[in-house]
Specification:
- The chain is mostly helical.
- It has 7 helices and no strands.
- It has a domain of 104 residues: Up-down Bundle (Methane Monooxygenase Hydroxylase, Chain G, domain 1).
- The protein is 65% helix and 0% strand.
- One of its GO terms (biological process) is photosystem II assembly.
- InterPro entries: PSII_Psb27, PSII_Psb27_sf.
- It is found in: Membrane; Thylakoid.
């Protein structure tokens, strides 16, 4: 049953519509080319000036930013201690949410700092720390900061922390 107000398509074509006219650009093409050329020249020139005016010491910065082994060892030990204290906190502790937030911030900055360093990627301590931090962070992201870590996962994390700590002491 069709509604009387329903609009039905018709097969007849009406020629009351005018065809659309193509849109024409009012700018001559030489201006566009000149603008592009001028902009390219300006960018090229400014890049050359910027590169030539920087001192030679700036090119040495990436190697200077590489963390020393002592710094890596110290910061990794701090992260290990923070992970241990946080995951061993009682679930009724009122400071657990703050401790988890602090741990997540610390672990994110540790990972961001040391993940880029090629010299650390093969180290056993880095691999174990990265794995443990990933497990801890994944748990708290999935279940919330007040949810206790299951015993099996907690045991594995603590074993990885012990392994990372031993590897740090051996310089690995």
């Amino acid at each position: 049953m069709a509604s009387p107000t329903l609009v039905t398509p018709t097969t007849t074509t009406t020629s009351t519509h005018k065809p659309l006219l193509p849109i024409r650009c009012h700018h001559p093409t030489t201006t566009t080319t000149t603008t592009t050329t001028n902009r390219r020249s300006f960018l090229s020139l400014s890049t050359i000036i910027a590169l030539s005016s920087t001192p030679l010491s700036v090119s040495i910065i990436p190697s200077a930013l590489a963390a020393s082994d002592d710094e890596y060892t110290k910061e990794t030990q701090e992260v290990i201690n923070k992970v241990r204290t946080t995951i061993n906190m009682d679930k009724t502790d009122p400071n657990i949410a703050t401790a988890v937030a602090d741990l997540r911030e610390t672990s994110n900055s540790w990972v961001a700092k040391y993940r880029k360093e090629k010299s650390l990627l093969g180290k056993l301590s880095f691999r174990d720390m990265y794995s443990a931090l990933n497990a801890v962070s994944g748990h708290y992201v999935s279940f919330g900061p007040t949810s206790p870590i299951p015993a099996k996962r907690k045991t594995r994390i603590l074993e990885e922390m012990d392994s990372a700590e031993k590897a740090l002491l051996r310089g690995r």
